Amino acid sequence: MTQDILMKNDEPTTPTNDASRNQLNQYCATAKAASGTQLLDVVRQVLEAPAIYVFGELLALPNVQELKNGPNEKYFNTLNLFAYGTYKQYRQKPDDYLDLTPTMQKKLQHLTIVTLAIKNKCIPYEVLLEELEINNVRHLEDVIIEAIYAGATHNASNKKFNNSYQKSL
């Protein structure tokens, strides 16, 4: 598993990056003061939020950490999966996690692409097809393009992914 990549202050700021950071800070502030179903709602909202691809700050909150040893451990496991895991891991043990909405599944696929790109300069299509459980190249290319336009490649891993992806073309 890859280390969670936290948004750093030394990254070049762009309107999208600033908006994502502000949105993440708002979720963290809300989660810090939340408990019970309100906290669970915040976790779901973060997983659904289209611009949020960094989860370390939220995972570090003490009340979020408490979720891992209780009746709501699926919330913690799912948040941890988005921070450190892959789509394939989710598909191997879906009962360990929340049921993902189509939006969450797509986001996890985007994060999986970033994770693989961080590990390898060039990712063969065969690897991506297997890891994302996609059965045709055209659909895979659409998912890659969506990840780039959604900001997953920038917000989750700064320029490292973009350089790796360009080298593989």
Automatic annotation (TrEMBL):
The keyword ATP-binding does not apply. It comes from the Eukaryota. Residues 12-21 have a biased composition (Polar residues). Belongs to the CSN7/EIF3M family. CSN7 subfamily. InterPro entries: COPS7/eIF3m, PCI_dom. GO terms for cellular component: COP9 signalosome. The keyword Transport does not apply. It comes from Ceratitis capitata. Keywords: Signalosome. This is (Mediterranean fruit fly) hypothetical protein. Residues 1-21 are annotated as: Disordered. Pfam families: CSN7_HB_subdom (PF22061). Residues 15-169 form the PCI domain.
